[in-house]
Amino acid sequence: MLSFNPLFPLSIAIIIVFSLVSFFGYREFRRKLKFLALRGIALSFVLVSLLGIILQPTYLSERILVPTLLLTRNYQKSKVDSILHANSKLKVIRTEDALSYSGSSTLRSWQDLSSENISYIIGQGIPEYAFDLLRNKDFQFIPAATPQGITRLIIPAPIFINDRVQIKGSFNSTEKTKLKLLGPGGAIDSTNLDIGESSFSLSFTPKRAGNSIYSLVSEGIRGSTSTERLPVEVSPTKRLRVLFIQKFPTAEVRFLKNFLSEKHHQIAVRYQVSKNNFTYEFDNLPQEKIDNLHSDILNSYDLLFIDQKSYNEISTQERGDLKKSINKGLGVIFLLHDAKEKAISEFLPVKTTVSSKDTIHIRLSSSLLNVLPALPIELANDPSIVPITKNKNRILSGYFYSGLGKIGFQFIQETFRIGLEGNIDDYSFAWTPLINNTARPKESNFKLKLVTAFPIYTNEPIDLTTISSRQPSLYAESVMIPLKENAFVEGHWTGRSWAGKSGWHQLYIKQDSTQLNYFVSDSSEWRALRISNQMKSNQVYQNISIDKSNEVSHQVPFPKLVFYFIFLFSSAFLWLAPKI
Fold first, then answer.
1. Residue ranges of E strands in 177-301
2. Angle subtended by helix axes 251-262 and 424-438, to nearest 10
3. Number of neighbours of residue 573 by Cβ within 10 angstroms
4. What's the DSSP call for residue 357?
């Protein structure tokens, strides 16, 4: 029932007080004066008052919290009036950036949310980190109007040199707008947007590795302009060891092999001449015999391409070794040519249906419309499938996890025709993301991920997670970040840091070369995106708690003035006693 907030460490405070009272008590009882019993009681009161002043005790109390309506920036007054008309007993508070409302008080700090029983949040909502301070999340969120500007942004990661990159998002405007992407060398791409909320896609191909600042510039037909800094981290090309296993040569594999070897990947190709004889091709790689797909061979490669006929003819032992290698991290892309092959059901563990459409009309990275044959297969919606290329709602390429490895698929056929027409960007877009995402990941004892969504602002928290079998030493620049392990998931660590000044920053793990770069934006940037993300998070968090109790326990401090008066009157009696 009692708690203490001592001015000094508890043990030191008690020792000091008892030492002083013992000394003066001894002196007092040696004096042959009247009122011995009363002087003893006065000394006890002095002891209690000194302990009260130094230890600052509090007691537990319970109170009923009044349901509260929280007004945030850009709330609609008419909706507030309607809610208060239906429930006049609601307490009304507002954030400092929200307009004043009759009878409302101001929320000075997000910390004050812990003492409120929030039933309604109206307007643009509260930041995601403030939800940690809510007593419960049983509230209703009534959003404000969608802000003007970029309201959704998807930046692919990782980005590699010479890869065609598409930045997608949504833009909301009351006028027709031209959106331009500017790079370090100037304008790269642009698109025209209609009135209202429109989707956009802008492309670029980075030519150097490192951290760069691009810009998204919007120009309205009425003369309004805005510029947002877009941080882009480009990684060096990942050099892969790729193995092709084919029954016989095809133009598709020939073109893909040449494309990858030009990017300095290490390539090995095996064609079957007869039942037990093979022919090989090697690029950027020493020659070796690969007559048997045993574990040692498979574990030395990052990615395996294998066609259906070759897979059907490998031995049971080879299939077992292949599955073990995939579970250990090997990436496999199955080259499909026949929708009726049984191997499809083994490599695609989701429900498939035969489609009547064996031709697709698709735009890849450029505005050119490509007409290509496609395997007549449609996949059922399944969260385990990560799509790479889609045509409307139809998934044409993607991958799924199998142990530590991944299995990829490509339903688009004869993609080499795109390259032969000289459209290398589209060809790269069809294959490079699939290859980079499916190949064996870089070996590391730690996996570091930023949880806080872009944009990140100065002096705001950054949440992150890391996966490790042992506790990592995680640093933000030179400051160590305390981590805690999930009580239910072993090896899953979470932590929180705070954003510094605007610009590029780095998180790194001391025991490993694992690092993560992130960018801190100015508070004036990406306002529409931030507000849009904030309103979405408020909609997700609302009404997820079943705790409807309005009672709250809290610690109430004993009035300090009482201890001061007790000390004063007790000391005064001890001073007056000899004089009476």
1. 177-183, 186-193, 196-204, 210-220, 225-235, 241-246, 266-272, 278-283
2. 80
3. 18
4. -
CA distance 375 to 473: 48
Between CA 478 and CA 484 the distance in angstroms is 19
What tens digit of pLDDT does each residue of 434-492 get? 998 899 987 777 888 899 999 999 999 999 999 887 888 888 888 899 999 888 888 89
Cite the DSSP H helix spans in 276-396: 295-299, 308-313, 316-327, 343-347
The token duo for 5 is 């907030």
CA 349 to CA 341: how far, in whole Å? Answer: 14
CA dihedral 23, 25, 27, 30 (to 10 degrees): -140
Cβ neighbours for 380, distance < 8 A, ≥ 6 positions apart: 350, 351, 352, 353
Measured CA to CA, the distance from residue 321 to residue 151 in angstroms comes to 48
Secondary structure, 3-state, 479-495: EEECEEECCCCCCEEEE
Instruction: With beta carbons less than 8 A apart as the criterion, state whether 301 and 242 touch.
Output: yes
The residues, ordered by sequence, that sit 6+ positions from 9 with a Cβ below 8 Å of its Cβ are none
Angle at 203 between CA 423 and CA 440, to 5 degrees: 80
Taking the chain (580 residues) in runs of 10, the rounded mean pLDDT of each run is 77 79 76 75 84 83 79 94 90 93 91 86 92 82 93 88 84 93 90 92 87 93 90 88 92 93 92 83 90 90 91 88 92 82 61 75 77 83 82 85 89 90 85 89 82 92 88 87 87 90 91 86 93 92 58 74 89 79
Q: Which residues contact 547 (CB under 8 A, 6 or more apart)?
A: 136, 138
Bond from prior residue into 158 cis (ω within 30 degrees of 0): yes
DSSP assigned state of 321:
H
User: How far, in Å, CA of 224 to CA of 201, rounded?
Assistant: 21
State the DSSP code for 274: S
Judge contact between 497 and 481, C-beta under 8 A.
yes
